[in-house]
Structures are given as structure tokens and as C-alpha cells.
Amino acid sequence: MTFKEQIKxxxxxxxxxPKPYETNINHAPKRKEILSADEKKLxxxxxxxxxxxxDHAILAKEFLDELNTYGRIYMxxxxxxxxxxxxxxxxxxxxxxxxxxxxxxxxxNLDYAVxxxxxxxxxxxxxxxxxxxxxxxLLTMKYLSEMTEEQTLTIYSGHPMGLFPSHRDAPRxxxxxxxxxxxxxxxxxxxxxxxxxxxxxxxMTAGSYMYIGPQGIVHGTTITVLNAGRKIAKNKExxxxxxxxxxxxxxxxxxxxxxxxxxxCITVCAEVNPKAVQTRHSQGWVDEVITDLDALVARVNSAxxxxxxxxxxxxxxxxxxxxxxxxxxxxxxxxxxxxxLHNPWAGGYYPVELDFETAQTMMSENPELFKEKVxxxxxxxxxxxxxxxxxxxxxxxxGNAFLLESSRxxxxxxxxxxxxxxxxxxxxxxxxxxxxxxxxxxxxxxxASGKPEDLQKTDDIACKVLEDxxxxxxxxxxxxxxxxxxxxxxxxxxxxxxxxxxxxxxADAEGRIKIAQAFNEAIKKGEIGYVVLGRDHHDVSGTDSxxxxxxxxxxxxxFTADMAIQNVIGDSFRGATWVSIHNGGGVGWGEVIxxxxxxxxxxxxxxxxxxxxxxxxxxxxxxxxxxxxxxDEATFAIKRAMETQPLLKVTIxxxxxxxxxxx
Length: 663
Prior knowledge:
CATH architecture of the largest domain: 3-Layer(aba) Sandwich
Radius of gyration: 24 Å
Helix content: 40-55%
Largest sheet: 9 strands, mixed
Number of helices: 21
Structural class: alpha/beta
Distance between the termini: 78 Å
Number of strands: 17
Low-confidence stretches: none
Shape: globular
CATH class of the largest domain: Alpha Beta
Number of domains: 3
CATH topology of the largest domain: Urocanase fold
CATH superfamily of the largest domain: Urocanase superfamily
């Protein structure tokens, strides 16, 4: 069959032959045993719902074997034979261009160059899934190939519930992931209900089809490292010769060495997974690989002496690196961590003193001992960080739940008041007051044609828009404007594309709208093909996360999730092509609610109307909440927004004199 015929087929009526387990692919770790014998039968019964009863006997045994071997039912047999990548939009079958664009984005998330565990349909973060199994993927693609502009596809944690009648201005797809009743949102609840096949962890952009490879976080990481450098700089000195030490080279954390290079420092990034190191090195995202600690010390000292801009992957544990650098008195200027500590017991964090394979086995076969080892390691990890900060290192929590899980392990990470952490979240210290409060966040786009020349044209368009805006921008946001102009000018030479022809930059509502309008006009003129707009959920409005995105909310509301829910509801009726809402992305199941969207630009008047309405809301919803929390930068930004849009009326907080509360 042709590619289009395979997409339209959905779940085959005749079962394909079983596929061999490919050992050269980076696979998800085995999940721990958590289901009873009766619950395993229920999981298999749930999986068999997708298949004709004539196939149940053979598949039941196969699915039991998958459940016992991997801890999940992935339905490997149904994995497509065609190469998985974002095809040009005109190669997809369908009755609706918006649906074709969504198929493109789904396949981009599962591209082997993009996905962390492609055969398990996991894009990044160890458990950030696009679908739970291959039947869901096949059925979803079939539905999208049949969809008209008068229908909406509803996705329940990877399961395509079906096509429902709607209308042209409704979202074409509505995605929910992991939306648990609150009392059933603990880590083991995810393990259990995911194993049963009734929910999944969508991360932030995996389950909403908006992941664009590590580029998606390179920009934010670059901004963070640049501004962390500015915090420690004397006389505006550059980061040349400064050392940034961190860990993780996975789907998100793999951006760190590239960002360090762009920021102009020396980066050492520890990673225990050889395949992750190999992937990032082969893609050019890290310059060098070292496996010996003495060789690492020598290389860093040489780089410091020469003030090199270089990134080094250390194949090994970050705790060993920190302890070795402490013993050698090797000064670290900037320190962080980006291991997936939202998922500490299932492959997100590997304890020191255990090799990679031993840890993989222990986490599934002896989970209690593995948890003990992880917590011992976190205590050592935090102690090593403390020794470096005592020497002057600026350490920031990268929103990966490092400090949260370290505190739960009994590590010395609390401030003197016993309530706050010793070290700030990077959002508290950098991105919150400098970017999010002003409305700047990760605006991104994908060229649906798949043509590199279209991406170059969109880069040029975005750069011109930003340069024109910068001429009249207020002083408060000039730094943000200039950082982004510098970023987009260097985007091509930094070779940021992995998978689809995609780009990201930080822009406020005005910038996002003007860039999108310019794209839509270029599409109308035939200068470029269709463009898919989106953003990371790690943004101004999309996410309520008390230890990350909303960690600089100080009115007590950082543990509420009204903003993210309102964001998605508002996007859905203002013109988004698809919307998504997730529990758990970024910092852990039960710790955060994330909302996202996708929007297809086709050069039409309808697209022009939708983009202006939706993007204005998508940003200013969050700014208004941040203003109400008494964040001065957000109050400045929302007042400026009200001046440009007379229909916007936002409640501004009155400040209270501290003296009257001195009871």
C-alpha cells in the first residue's frame, strides 16, 4: 500500500506479523510491577477493545507478554512500516488541511531523530507520550484523514474517542492527558492507570503534538544561561571562560550544551545513558565526549585557560562530577540540573554508584531499593551542590523538581526559615520577572511544506518584525527584544533543526500577532507554504506549576490551576486549530496543569481573524493573573495592553502599605 493508503487504513483488518524488538533503538525502561493478576486481565481486556474478536486469543497472550516484559502494552506488532517523520503537508490524505497539519505534527513527535523512545511512542522526559499504544496512533491518523471542517476529534489520554459534529470555528482536535480526580494523582496512580491503559502522561508538548526537538528548549535555556551570567557578571563581562555544570542529555535536557555554546561559556553536562550521549554528539548538540574524570578535569582547566566556548558530555553520573570538581577545587560559575526528577523512580534520575544497566533492572525488579538508592544519591548530590555554592557558585533549580525531590529525600536544601528552598527556581530569578511577567514566552512555528527555504523566509520575516518593533519598544523590554533579534539572526548557523522545519523565539503578544500576521500574508501571496503556530506550555499563561512557571506568584495562588484551564477554554473558542490540557508535564504527575494549542495559518481572512483574537488572549490571560499577584512587571504589561485594545478591561490590584500590617 502507498503511504496515504496506510494512513487511511487505520487498524488493519488482517493482523501484521509480529515485529522483532530492535535493540539499537533507545527504549523506555521497564515499568515496575504494579498490577494484580485481575488488573492485568483488565488491562488486556482494555487493549483488546481495538480489535476484532477473531484476533483476541492470539493478541491476549501477546499483550500479557508485553505487560510482563515491559510493564505496559505498546502493541509493537502494529508499529507502521513506513518511515516516521513530518512529511510535507500535501503528502497526507484528507478532506481538511488543518487535519493534515495535525498528522504532520504527530509524526514529527514520533520521528526517530526527535523522540526519546520512539517505539514506545514517548517523545521526551522518560514518559511524555503521544499515545499509549500503536492502535491509538493508527486510529487517530485514520480519523484525521476522514475529518471535515464540520467535525472535532476528541482525544482522551491518547485514545481517539471519535469524530463529533461541530463547526468550522471549533478546534479540529481537543486533547486531554492524565486528567485525574485529584486524590488519584500520585506517582503510583500514574503507574497503575497507565498500565491499565486508561490514562497517560502527555508531558508538556508531547501529548499535544507540539514538540519540535531540543530546539524547543534551546532558546529558553540560552536566555536563562545568558541572564544567569548577567547576574554574576562584573562590569558587564561576558561568559567567556566561565564554567556551567549541569546534567541530562535527554529530549529536553539535551539542549543545554548547545545553549551553553550560544551563550558563550564552557559547558559540562553529565549523562548516564550512552545512547543519549551518542545521539546528542552525532547531532552536533554537544562538541566532545569524555568518560574519565581526570581527563574531564584536565579538559575543563584547559578550556578555562584558553577561554574556549566548548560543550563536553561526561558519560557518567553528575554526583561524581560535582564531587571530583570539589576535590580538585575546580571553580563552577553556574550550576543546575535537568534530569527528569518529575519521574525519579522510573528512569528520570539514576543514582550514583549504580551503573546504567543495573539501575535499569533494579527500578523494575526492586523498586523500593531503587527508591532508597535515588534518595541517597540526591542527598549526596545536594551536599555537593552546597559545597560549590559555599565557594561562590550560582546554582539555580531548573524546574525539574530537583529541589522538591531532594527535600523529600531529606537533603539539606531548605533556607533558614525551613519553608523556602536555598536556591531559586530559574523562573523566580530569571524567566518570571524578565520574560513571563512582560508577556515574553516561547512562540514557535513549523513550516508545513517541509522546505528549508520556507524556514529561512519565516526567519527573515520574524527578524524584520522584531527589528521594526524594537525601534519603538519601551526601555523595560529592550533587552528581551535585542536578545531575540540576536537569536533569530543566528538560528540558521546554529543548525537548530531536528525533525520538522521549525523555529522558536520568545515574543510578547504584540510580537506573536505581528509575526503571525506577516506569515499569513506571505502565505496568501504564495511566498511560503502553510505554517503551524504553537508554543511550549512553559509560557506566560499555559501552565500552573508552583515550583516552575508560576513560582514567582507570591499571593498564595501559585497552587491553583485556574489560569491554565481558562487559557485552554479561551483558546478553543477564539480560533485554535487544536487545544490540549495535561496533568503532570515538566515537574511531575499531580504537580502541575499544562494547557497548549496549535493553529494552522493558510493565508485566509479567517486565519487572520483567529490569530489576532486567540494570540492576544493566550498571552494576556497570564499577564493579568500575574498582575493580580502584584507583580510590577506584569502590571506594566497589562496596562500597556489595555492602551492598545479598548475592549480589554482588567482589574488592577491596589498595593498595601506594609506598615498597616505590623500588628
